[in-house]
Specification:
The chain has 218 residues and is of the alpha/beta class. The protein has a single domain, classed as TIM Barrel (Alpha-Beta Barrel), CATH 3.20.20. Helices cover 53% and strands 17% of the residues. It is built from 11 helices and 8 strands. The chain has an 8-stranded parallel barrel, surrounded by 7 helices. Helix 5 runs parallel beside helix 6 and helix 6 crosses helix 8. The structure holds erythose-4-phosphate. Erythose-4-phosphate binds next to helix 7.
């Protein structure tokens, strides 16, 4: 399973990269706004800065919602760096655009996915990644991890033209990462706090303290 970080914060991207386990990055307009990035030139520069840190897929989201706009914006984003993956919302024109990008060898991440039906459409259109938002599903009283398992099952028994990868998004906790790994996610995109949360266990801390104490007797 690949690990992506879900942020536009360069310091956090560097910290995760230095751990040695980072495979890629996802961003979205809210995450970019949180970093105070605005204006086309600054947005483009920020994506390039991210690509300079991580040598892996970097999802950059289009802001257009019509077919022609998505295609134009996606091509501009792709031209910024070979590692850019064009992030496209799960809407009618988005699906048409994903099909077009797939036929033109441009990688896509179909975002805002909340059902198995949407995941089937994304795979049919040839998306490189499909992003079910599991935290937001949990917030709405459904089980986000169940959706990952359902999509993994469907993608396993069906033969879609593209080998669409399941990118579990809207991860909120370390346990989400573990459960997504069990359920068959190909990728998890997580905040830094959830990645670092995987390190934690009180018995590790107690055991290390004891070893260091006993080491003084050596
Ligand atoms: C995915 O690519 C999205 O950027 C992200 O995971 C959404 O997470 P949120 O529900 O915490 O905003």
């Amino acid at each position: 399973m690949k690990f992506f970080i879900d942020t536009a914060n360069l310091a956090q991207i560097k910290e995760a990269h230095e751990l040695g386990i980072l495979d890629g990055v996802t961003t979205n307009p809210s995450l970019m706004a949180k970093e105070g990035i605005s204006g086309a030139d600054n947005i483009a520069k920020h994506y390039q800065d991210i690509c300079d840190i991580v040598d892996g897929p970097v999802s950059a989201e289009v802001l257009s919602t019509d077919f022609a706009g998505i295609i134009e914006e996606g091509q501009k984003l792709k031209a910024l760096h070979p590692n850019i993956v064009v992030k496209v919302p799960m809407i009618k024109d988005g699906i048409k655009a994903i099909k077009w990008f797939s036929e033109n060898n441009i990688k896509t991440n179909c975002t805002l996915v909340f059902s198995a039906g949407q995941a089937i459409l994304a795979a049919k259109a040839g998306a490189t990644y499909v992003s079910p938002f599991i935290g937001r599903i949990d917030d709405s009283n459904w089980d986000g991890v169940d959706l990952i398992a359902q999509i993994a099952h469907i993608y396993g028994v069906q033969q879609f033209e593209a080998k669409t990868k399941i990118l579990a998004a809207s991860i909120r906790t370390p346990l989400h990462i573990v459960k997504c790994a069990e359920a068959g996610a190909d990728v998890v995109t997580c905040p830094l706090s959830s990645i670092l949360g995987l390190l934690k266990h009180p018995l590790t801390d107690l055991g290390l303290a004891q070893f260091l104490e006993d080491a003084k007797k050596l």
